[in-house]
Amino acid sequence: MLIPVLLSGGIGSRLWPISRELYPKQFISLADDENSLLQNTVIRLDGLETAPSMIIVCHEEHRFLVAEQVRQLGLESVTIIIEPESKGTAPAVALAAFEALKQFEDEDPILLVLPVDHIINDKASFHQAIKKGKSQAESGKLVTFGIQPTSPATQFGYIRRGSNIDSIDNLFEVSDFVEKPDEETAKDLLSDEDCHWNSGMFMFRASSYHKKLEKYAPDILDVCRASYASVVKDLDFKRVHAPSFTECRPDSVDCAVLEHTKEAVVVSLDSEWQEICEWSTLWDSGNKDDNGNVVNGDVVLDDVKNCYLSGESRLVAALGIENLVVVETPDAILVANKDNVNSVPKIVEQLKKNNRSEAVNHTCVYRPWGSYETLVSETRFQVKRIIVNPGATLSLQMHHHRAEHWTVVRGTALVTCGTKEILLREDESNYIPLGFKHRLKNPGVIALELIEVQTGSYLGEDDIVRFDDNYGRSGS
User: 286 and 294 in contact (C-beta within 8 Å)?
Assistant: First the structure.
């Protein structure tokens, strides 16, 4: 039994300003015009013989985003495990292994562990590599997948292969792992035919991983066992015991287990592969014009070479530049030398230090019921565009410091205001006085779109007191 385990716990700060803490890169369409990186990871599994269900491990704040994106693909048998905090891949996979063993009590399933930020263009080669490594995983080995390096990359770790196990299937023992190298070391590794990029994809039996954790990182296993023992069902999610899990030290599968064991096997993946970790990798994998530029959105160029340029909400014009990344969003613009984009997280840290919302949210903020976008924000008034999905309902709530005026521009709204229920259609509006309990529902089959004007002495999102909520959110 092969169970896909998708790891979706990162925040992708190196891809700021497109990737934000509450809406990171895995939920964004970066590889094509339709699907997100998470969705493409799921689609890539089509045709493999896997269990009827998969496991996705994600951060608390992203649970509804994961649920919505798998719903869009029509998937029903998905278990979403919520991490109270991101602690790295080692604890995340340990939780998934406990869940897999619980779901298949009479078997010892094989876990196919996949990050959700990869581009793999050759699905057939991807499937073939999995099939090659499966027999090794069945025998108790821990399988990792190596990528033939094409450049002296410093953003990836490396695997040095050892003795040949099967020359036909190109299977090798792992000699050792090399952490992300400096530039000179990366050049030496590139010239070594036994070195591969470490893809961060793994395959092993659930029990084999637990046994190796017990041997090499017993503290991680103990914490994960304790936190999973108190797992509770929360709507469509499984929530582990937060106080226990927060005691876990962060670590990766590689560092916690694979670097220590003699039972690691590397399979060579013969396909174009990209980990979408920073802007230079999007330039590497993008479709370039005759001057080496990758362009997205409304962009006008003259005498521009080897640049990545993206415009999301307005025209971007560039003249006489070379080797730059220029990324425009409605509330932030990044301009960086392509050779320095690995330092983008330093900008994000500055924003966080100064309590800037641009580190966390886009102007469009996604909620389990839909989304809202701030159009105007002033001291005592704010204008938002709100989208409510068909059949979705916001919480029954009230505000201490603001009143709201709603105007429907598309669809139908069922509004609860105090003790009254009002049905609003297009071009109709309703006033919600300060301190009134209120609720908004979309009873229709198309998305509800409305304009909300807030007025008051304080307009922060924390001025919400919830009395009832369909999504398990509570309090203020």
Answer: yes
Residues whose CB falls within 8 Å of the CB of residue 33, separated by 6 or more in sequence, listed in order: none
List the structure tokens of 343.
């330092």
Q: What is the mean pLDDT of residues 331-343?
A: 94
The tokens for 214 are 């017990």
Q: Is the pLDDT of residue 476 over 60?
A: no
Amino acid (1-letter code) at residue 282: L
**pTM, two decimal places:** 0.89
Pairing of strands 78-83, 237-239: parallel
Q: Which DSSP helix (H) or strand (E) runs through 425?
A: none
pLDDT at res. 471: 86
- What domains does the chain contain, in order, with CATH numbers? 2-275 (3.90.550.10), 288-353 (no CATH), 364-468 (2.60.120.10)
**Extended beta strands in 64-157, E state:** 78-83, 110-115, 118-120, 142-147
> CA 23 to CA 38: how far, in whole Å?
12
Residues in contact with 369: Cβ distance below 8 Å, sequence separation at least 6, in sequence order: 388, 389, 392, 393, 394, 470, 471
The answer to whether residue 310 scores a pLDDT higher than 90 is yes
**In the block, residue with structure tokens 């969003």:** 329
Amino acid at 437: K
Cα 172 from chain centroid (whole Å): 31
- Residue entry with tokens 């669809």: 411
Going by their DSSP bridges, the two strands 264-269 and 110-115 should be labelled as unpaired
Output the six-digit token pair for 202: 């793994």
